[in-house]
């Protein structure tokens, strides 16, 4: 089977609508939310002003429901609506693309990628080396006039060639560290530079870190007047950063999760927001393509495959892989999928793991491949070997996609559940383990540095959303509020076991996996080339680089998502 034949095979050939699967940056669990004692209604720019009440903070008595450390260490990882239903959000996001054929590549490329990896061993795929270097993303030039927040700044996908980086980005990392040091040295209220919202937000955080409450209150008042959920990326992000700072000031310890009164949308509504985020940004597509490609390549000659998916959500990530395996030369293998999930994802999915089993059964019948499903409804740190039903003669693949950072490490629990989970997985002798994580350093970083890191990381994401959705778009507001804002607040406001958003850079993950006994596998150059081609459908500012055996996807000079494979 040559490459031309492989690329003639697509999802539509199975007469099945393409439905993407994606975890979002997870939300805070609804069960952990409670009333907050402060008034947001007075601020017209408060992103939660229509959702918060101003009741006094409920007393946190001994009768309050308690949760085990493991129970609060996972969060919402929902997927798209039913695999076999047409999702109007996907069609709406498709209309945002200027080039229809480019969008078709996005919808079919993962299947084509996996099918190619199922081809005989003598098939060879090569990719040209990228030559362009990315430029550094400048800091925000300052706050716009308030009238800008009500203007329509509609924008479309750009079709320019994306920037690709093939070396390491050490120099830009050094520059970023130096900038952060300068930001931390900025004087407080008296010498505050005008018209610089980014610096104003950092000054607020510094005043709070130093317990200078008078300065904090004055700076916060200025920040509230400067932010807007309809403004520039820094203004929109600033609205949620401000709420995080207030939540940190007003709550502490076990009460911190009660800092938000923002009502959860219904399951279907939440999924539609996440579907839209998945379609307009390539970050999550990238993670799934890299992970599925690594699994397909490692198991290309296996007759029996067992996939353990930590936080399976709706399970629709596996649709294209199963279809590719079904079309594999020599016949389809027997596939067993163990889906680990928690009650929070059950809420987002709208039901238990039996729903996932039914969807996989439909895939099995449609594609003509034997698929066996086993659901494990527990939090990841509570998984035991006995729950996984390991059988001899099966090629085992373990998938961690934007999930492992929710498991606490040694800084939170003496037992170090994060490394313990990796050791458990290694003891199973998997043929391949895939890891996709946010490329951010928020785990053990002190508060002020963590605030600056969060500001830098999410500003890149908000800028990338700005390329696709207009400033006054209700869809954009919903995506940012329900898919991103609560995680921002969790990182800023929470400490200890209540802070579940604990990201680490790839270098740290590499150390953890190596200490657990894993050896890194190089990712396929073919996977790399397909992802590069798909980035052309988005913006010239998306970057792809290879570093230490991993692939990193970013926006301008900021890496955002890392993908790696291990055995």
Explain this structure.
- The structure is a single chain.
- This protein is 40% helix and 10% strand.
- It has 567 residues and is an alpha/beta fold.
- It folds into 2 domains: 3-25 and 76-132 and 281-444 and 500-566, Rossmann fold (3-Layer(aba) Sandwich); 30-56 and 167-268 and 446-498, no CATH class.
- Strands 1, 2, 3, 4, 5, 6, 7, 8, 9 and 10 form a 10-stranded mixed β-sheet that branches.
- Helix 10 (319-326) links the parallel strand 2 (304-310) and strand 3 (334-340).
- Helix 2 (88-94) runs parallel beside helix 8, helix 3 (100-117) packs parallel to helix 9 (283-298) and helix 8 (267-280) crosses helix 16.
- The two termini are 28 Å apart.
Indicate the structural class: alpha/beta
CATH class of the largest domain: Alpha Beta
Largest sheet: 10 strands, mixed
Count of the separate structural domains: 2
Unreliable segments (pLDDT under 50, ≥5 consecutive)? 1-44, 49-99, 121-168, 256-262
CATH topology of the largest domain: Rossmann fold
H/E topology pattern:
HHHEHHHHHHEHEHHEHEHEHHHEHEEE
**Number of helical stretches of at least 4 residues:** 18
Helix percent reads 25-40%
Mean pLDDT: 74
Distance between termini?
28 Å
Shape: globular
The number of distinct β-strands equals: 10
How does CATH name the architecture of the largest domain? 3-Layer(aba) Sandwich
Q: Tell me the β content.
A: 5-15%
CATH homologous superfamily (4th level) name of the largest domain: Vaccinia Virus protein VP39
Rg, please?
23 Å
Motif (VHIID): 305-309
Pfam family, one: GRAS
Region (Leucine repeat I (LRI)): 195-255
Region (SAW): 493-567
């Amino acid at each position: 089977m040559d490459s031309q034949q492989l690329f003639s095979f697509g999802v539509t050939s199975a007469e099945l609508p393409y439905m993407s699967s994606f975890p979002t940056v997870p939300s805070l669990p609804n069960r952990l939310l409670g009333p907050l004692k402060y008034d947001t209604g007075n601020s017209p720019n408060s992103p939660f002003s229509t959702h918060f009440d101003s009741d006094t903070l409920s007393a946190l008595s001994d009768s309050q429901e308690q949760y085990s450390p493991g129970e609060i260490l996972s969060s919402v990882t929902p997927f798209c609506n039913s695999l076999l239903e047409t999702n109007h959000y996907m069609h709406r996001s498709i209309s945002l693309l200027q080039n229809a054929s480019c969008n078709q590549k996005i919808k079919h490329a993962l299947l084509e990628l996996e099918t190619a990896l199922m081809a005989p061993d003598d098939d060879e795929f090569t990719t040209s080396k990228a030559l362009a270097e990315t430029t550094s993303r400048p800091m925000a030039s300052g706050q716009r006039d308030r009238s800008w927040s009500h203007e329509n700044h509609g924008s479309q996908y750009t079709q320019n060639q994306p920037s690709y980086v093939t070396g390491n980005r050490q120099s830009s990392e050094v520059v970023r560290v130096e900038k952060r040091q300068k930001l931390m040295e900025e004087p407080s209220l008296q010498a505050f530079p005008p018209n610089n919202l980014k610096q104003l937000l950092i000054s607020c955080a510094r005043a709070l870190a130093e317990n200078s409450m008078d300065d904090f209150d004055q700076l916060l008042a200025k920040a509230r007047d400067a932010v807007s959920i309809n403004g520039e990326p820094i203004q929109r992000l600033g609205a949620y950063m401000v709420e995080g700072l207030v939540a940190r000031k007003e709550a502490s310890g076990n009460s911190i999760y009660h800092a938000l009164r923002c009502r959860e949308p219904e399951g279907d509504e939440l999924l539609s927001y996440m579907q839209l985020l998945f379609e307009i940004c390539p970050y999550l597509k990238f993670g799934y393509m890299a992970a599925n490609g690594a699994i397909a390549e490692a198991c290309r000659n296996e007759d029996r495959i067992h996939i353990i998916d930590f936080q399976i959500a709706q399970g629709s990530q596996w649709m294209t892989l199963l279809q590719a395996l079904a079309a594999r030369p020599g016949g389809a293998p027997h596939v067993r999928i163990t889906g680990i999930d928690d009650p929070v994802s059950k809420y987002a999915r709208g039901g238990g793991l039996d729903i996932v089993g039914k969807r996989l059964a439909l895939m099995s019948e449609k594609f003509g491949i034997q698929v066996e499903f086993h659901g494990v409804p527990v939090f990841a740190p509570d998984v035991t070997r006995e729950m996984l039903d390991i059988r001899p003669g099966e090629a085992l693949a373990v998938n961690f996609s934007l999930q492992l950072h929710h498991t606490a490490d040694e800084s939170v629990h003496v037992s170090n559940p994060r490394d313990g989970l990796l050791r458990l997985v290694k003891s199973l002798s998997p043929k391949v383990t895939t890891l996709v994580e946010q490329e951010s350093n928020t785990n053990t970083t002190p508060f002020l540095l963590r605030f600056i890191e969060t500001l830098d990381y999410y500003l890149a994401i908000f800028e990338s959303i700005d390329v696709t959705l207009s400033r006054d778009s209700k869809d954009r507001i919903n995506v940012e509020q329900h898919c991103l804002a609560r995680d921002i607040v969790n990182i800023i406001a929470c400490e200890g076991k209540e802070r579940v958003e604990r990201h680490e850079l790839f270098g740290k993950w590499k150390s953890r996996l190596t200490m657990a006994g894993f050896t890194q596998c190089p990712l396929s150059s073919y996977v790399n080339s397909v992802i590069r081609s798909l980035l052309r459908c988005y913006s010239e500012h998306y970057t792809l680089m290879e570093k230490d055996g991993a692939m990193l996807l970013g926006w301008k000079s900021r890496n955002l998502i890392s993908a790696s494979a291990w055995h």
